[in-house]
Structure formats: structure tokens, C-alpha cells
Design a protein that fits this description.
Helix content: under 10%
Shape: globular
Oligomer: single chain
Largest sheet: 9 strands, antiparallel
Distance between the termini: 8 Å
Structural class: mainly beta
């Protein structure tokens, strides 16, 4: 199977709260959606300053046109070029975002994750995992993420494979200590540049 590049809808939806981790993580919409930048990231933070405490949750969304796949692949890999920061353990899960195929992500896509519950629970058993948990992120090269059987099945049954990357702590409803921040950053490049996240270049499978 030839490589499939993600659409120009790649981006990050984030939510920030000055009240609590729960308010930041369990919101039904985010405070900001962005996709036309040189980098795209996912992570979370818990900071404290002159204005008090702040909690930030960031989730990365990608989508792939899989309408041409008629036979389930035996294996596939999501490839993302990392850069700058790579401090978060993470999962790839099934997304349900509206921002696909060139349509921009919006703040309502913040919780666009299959099976997600906004009721302050550990969602690890609720979501559809597209990868195992990963504890490494290459900041100067490719991150090759092996996709699960669930992803392989959806690649043939769905016309669009929707993907979300988020931290393991976000998934499991686990706040950070004050002053702690974890984030992974992916590089956005020009169309056709292999393995990069970006406008019509995004993550790549297999």
C-alpha cells in the first residue's frame, strides 16, 4: 500500500482553565484551535504565577483519506517528524473531529474522540486505541508509531481515518504537579515532504 499523507486539516485544539484541571480537561469545546503554523503539538501543563494557577490541555488531530483502501492492510505505521520538545508519554486514538479533508479544525473538536467521556473519568477503557502507549518522542527525526488492529480495520471500513494524539495523563485523568509541563511537537512542512506533519503533508501511513 502506498503512503497516505494527512490532509491540511492537521492541527491542535487546546483548552485552558484558571479554575481546575477538570475544567480544562473535561470541557466540550476548547479555547483555541490552530492548524496553520510551522509546528503542531500536544501536551498538558500546570503552571502557577502572579495571576494564579493555570491548566492547559492540547490535543493533536490528523486525518487521512482511506477511501481507496479496499483490502485491510497487514500492518501500518503513522510517521510524524518530531522537533524541539518531546517530553510526553502518549497514545494515538480514534478521532471524530469535523475538521477533515481541508476543513479547518474548530474549538468544538476538542473532545472529538471516539468513546470519550467528559465526566472526570479515566478514558483508557472508553476510547478506541490506534496505538500502544509510547514513552519516546524523537525531536530530531521521524517518530514511527505502529498502528493497532482497530486502526487497520478502520482504514478499510472508513473513507476517512481520523486520529487524535494526546498524553497518557490526559487520557487517564491525571493532573500534573504545579510547574510541570509535558509536550511533544511535530514539524509542519511543505506538501510532499516525507514524514512531516503539515499542510497536505501531515502524518503518514504506513
Amino acid at each position: 500500500m502506498a503512503s497516505i499523507l494527512s490532509s491540511s486539516s492537521d492541527g491542535t485544539v487546546q483548552n485552558m482553565s484558571t479554575s481546575s484541571f477538570a475544567e480544562a480537561r473535561d470541557a466540550t469545546s476548547g479555547s483555541r484551535a490552530s492548524g496553520t503554523r510551522t509546528t503542531v503539538n500536544f501536551g498538558q501543563g500546570h503552571t502557577s504565577g502572579r495571576v494564579g494557577e493555570r491548566w492547559l490541555i492540547q490535543r493533536m488531530f490528523l486525518d487521512f483519506d482511506t477511501s481507496g483502501i479496499s483490502v485491510e492492510p497487514t500492518a501500518a505505521t503513522l510517521n510524524i517528524t518530531g522537533t524541539i520538545l518531546g517530553t510526553a508519554d502518549y497514545f494515538v486514538v480514534k478521532g471524530t473531529q469535523d475538521g477533515v479533508g481541508g476543513t479547518e479544525l474548530n474549538t468544538d473538536d476538542f473532545d472529538a474522540i471516539d468513546g470519550w467521556s467528559n465526566s472526570g473519568v479515566d478514558n483508557e477503557g472508553n476510547v478506541t486505541k490506534y496505538s500502544a502507549e509510547s514513552g519516546s518522542w524523537n525531536t530530531s527525526g521521524n517518530n514511527a508509531i505502529t498502528l493497532t488492529a482497530a486502526a487497520l480495520s478502520d482504514m478499510v471500513s472508513l473513507d476517512t481515518l481520523k486520529v487524535c494524539l494526546l498524553t497518557n495523563k490526559d487520557l487517564r485523568y491525571d493532573d500534573l504537579s504545579v510547574g510541570e509541563q509535558i509536550v511533544n511537537v511535530g514539524f509542519m512542512s511543505e506538501e510532499g515532504e516525507e514524514g512531516a506533519i503539515g499542510s497536505s503533508a501531515g502524518g503518514k501511513v504506513p
